[in-house]
Specification:
The complex is a heterodimer of chains A (about 575) and B (about 210). Chain A has about 575 residues and is mostly helical. Chain A contains 27 helices and 4 strands. In chain A, helix 4 packs across helix 26, helix 7 packs antiparallel against helix 10 and helix 20 crosses helix 24. In chain B, helix 4 packs parallel to helix 5. Helices cover about 35% and strands about 25% of the residues of chain B. Classes of the chains: A mainly alpha (about 575), B alpha/beta (about 210). Chain A: Belongs to the binding-protein-dependent transport system permease family. Chain A: It is found in: Cell membrane.
Chain lengths: ~575, ~210
Amino acid sequence: MPLQKIKWTQWTIALLLAFPIAIGLIGTLLPAFQYFPPLGQDTLSLDPWHSLFEQGEFYASLKLTLITGIGAPILALWFSLSLLAWGYQRPFFRKIETLLSPILAIPHAAIAIGLLFLLSPSGWLVRLFSPWLTGFDRPPNWISVQDPYGASLIFALVIKEMPYLLFVMLGAMKSLQASDTIKACQALGYRRFTLWRKVLIPQLYPIIRLPIFIVIAFSLTVVDLALIIGPNTPSTLAVTLFRWFNDPDLDRRLMASAGAVFLMLVIALVLGGWELAHQIFSQATRPERSNGKRSGLSDNLLRSGVILGLMSLLSGFIALALLPIWSLAKRWRFPDALPAKWTWDNIDRATPLLIELTSNTLLIALSATLLACFIALLMLETLRRSTHYSTNKSSGYNKPHLFDWLIYVPILLPQIGFLFGLHVLLIYLNLNGDLCAIIALHLMYVLPYVYLTLKGPYLAYEENYLQEANRLNRQTWRNYVRIKLAMLKPALFTAFAIGFSVSIAQYLPTLIAGEGRYSTLTTEAVARAASGDRKQVGSMALLQAFFPVMIFWMAQYIPPRWTRWRLALKTSLRRINPRRNKKCSA
Amino acid sequence: MLSVNAFSLSLDDKTLISNLSFDIADGHVLSIMGPSGIGKSSLLHYLSGTLPDTLSATGDAFLNGEALHTKPTQQRKVGLLQQMPLLFPHMSIIENLLFAIPTNIDKHNRQQQAQNSLQRLGMPDKANTLPKTLSGGQQARVALLRTLLSQPDYLLLDEPFSKLDPALRREVREFVLTEIRRANIPTLLVTHDPEDATAMEGEYLELGEMK
C-alpha cells in the first residue's frame, strides 16, 4: 500500500482501538463503586458490592457459570483433540474438515434453537422413540433442556466450540511437521493414540493456548446461548447480570456493574487456574511420556472422546436439519417423527417480518465487515512496514506487535458490563439507538477475526510482485489493488466470510447499541426462542444460518475460479462484438 | 549510455566493492561476475534505487549524462529482470503484457504492441492463457518482453537464467540479447555463470574478494 505517514496511521488506529476498550472498562468500573452521574450518583462507595454479595441469586448463578464455563471448554478440548488424533491426515477426515467451516459460520443461536427442537421433551429425539419404545403419546414431563444443572447449555457450548478448536488445531498442525513425527513414532511401534498423547498433543497445546482462552472466556460470559438453552432460575451469572442491567430499578444497574467486574475477575482467575492445572498435569504426565510403553490405558480416553465427539457433531447436524423442517411444517403432532402436512404458509406469513430482519441484518453485517477489512488492511500494512516487523523478520522471531495485544481485548472481555459501559458513551454522543452505533460495536467484534485471518497471508505475500508492478507502471494505488489485493483474493474472501458470520451472530451489541430499535435475525430469534412458536422461530434461525453458510461457500468457491470466469467472460464479449472490442479490450 | 563512477559499497565497516567504474553503451550488455555475497545484487539495487538502509554506497551514476543516483525509483524508468519471472498469476499473458505498456499510448496501439510481442514470443495462441500454463523458459521470455514494453531507459538483469534448465538457457539468452539490441538500451547483467557473460557478447567485469 503506497501509504504515507506510517507512524501516524499506526498510532491513530491503536488509539481508536484502545479508546472504546478504555471507555467500556471505566464505564463498568466506576458504577461498580457507586459513581454514576447519569443516575445522580457521584460519591464512591462499596455499596454495590455489598448488595451484590447479599444476593443469594449471585452465588447460585456464579456456581452455574463456573460449571458450564469450565466444563464446556474441557469437554470441547477433549473431544476435538480425540477427533484430531483419530482422523488426522486420513482420507475420510478431509470430508469432515471441509464441513467444519460452514458449521463455524452458523450463529450459535441457530444451533441452540435447533438443539431445543432436538432435545426438549417434545423434541425430535423423544418423538423418534415414541410411542413404540417409550409408550409416550404426549411429551413427558422431563427437564431435558434448560435444565437446572446447565447440562444442555454445556452440550450446546461443546457443539459450538469443538469445531472451532478443531479448525484452529488443523491450522496449527501445519507448523509442527506432524507427518514426519507420526511416521517416526509409528516406526518405533507406537500406537496412533499413544503417540498423539505422548508426542503431538504436548507440542500442539502451546500453539493453541490463546484460542482455548477465547473459548473459556466465551463459555463463562455467553448471554444469547444461555438465554435460549441455559437454566433460568437461577440463570448463569452473565444472564443474571443482563437481567439486572435491564431492571427498571436503576440501583440494580450499579449492582450489575459490580457483578460485571466480578465476572472479569472470574475470567482472569479461571484462565490462571487453567494454566496452573495444565502445568501440574504436564509435570505429572512427563514421566509417563518417556516410559517407553507403546500403548496405554489412557488411550481409551481419546478413544471415547472420538465417539462422544462424533455424537456431538451428529447432533449438531440433526439440530440444524430440524430448522427447515419446522419452518415448513403445517401439522406436526407429538409422537410423529415427521410433519403430517407440509406448507410454505409459515414462511409466507412471516415474509414481511423476515424481509425487515434480513435487510437490517445484512446491512449491519456487510458494512461492519467491509469496514473491518479496510481497517485490517491498514493495520497490516503499518505492521509490515514498521521497523519492528522488518527487523524481526530477518531473525525469524516475531515479537507480538501492539496491535496483537489490543485486538484480543474485546474478545476476551465479557460483553456484559463492558457493552453497558460503552452504552453510556453512546448516550453522551447522542448515538444511542443509532444504526451507526450498532455497526461500530459490531466492528469491534468483527475486526479481531478479520485481522487475525488476514495477518498470515498478508505478511507472507511475495512483495516482489508489487514492486515489479510499480516498476512497470507508476500507478501505485491502482497496482496495490489490481496486483496485491487481487492476488490475496482467497484470503480476503475468507476473512470477509468469517467477519460476516461473526457479525450475524452478535446479540448483545445489536441490542445494547440499538436499544431495541433495530431487530436482526439473531435478536429476534433469541427473543422468540422460548415463545413456543417453533414454526416462526425455525424460519428465523434457518435464515440466520443460511447467509453465513452461503457467504462461506462463496468464499471458498469463487476465488479459485474468478480468473477463469473473468477471462471466459472477456472472450465471449469479444465474440459478440469483435469490432468494438478491438478498440477497448484493454 | 549508462555510466557508473567510483562506486563503493560497504556493509557496516566491511567494504564489499570499492571504486568501481564502468560505461555501458546503448544496445550493449556489461556482465558482472563474482561469488555470491560480494555485493553484485546490491549494485543493481543501487542502480534501481532500492538499496536497503543497512548498506551504504557512494559514487555517481549517469544515464546519458543525467544524474541517476539522486532520483527516486519511480522516476528512473528502470527495467529489472530477476530469477523469478514474477508474471502476475491472476492475469492472462496478454494482460500481463498490456499492464506494462505506458498509458499515454492509445488503446488500439497498446493492443497492437501486445499482439506483436506475442508474435515475437512465438505464442500468438497463448494470449488468453494464464502464466502457470507456460514453461519456465516461456515465462522468462514473457517477463523480458513485459519489462521492455514498459519502455525502460536501461535494463538490469539479476541472474535471470539461473533457474532455467541448461538446454533452455542458450535459447533464452539468445532471445534476450536480440531483444536488448532491438530496444537499444544499456544493460547490466549480474551472474555467477561465465557462460551467461560470453553469450551476451559484451564486456565483462569480475569482482573478487576484498582483502
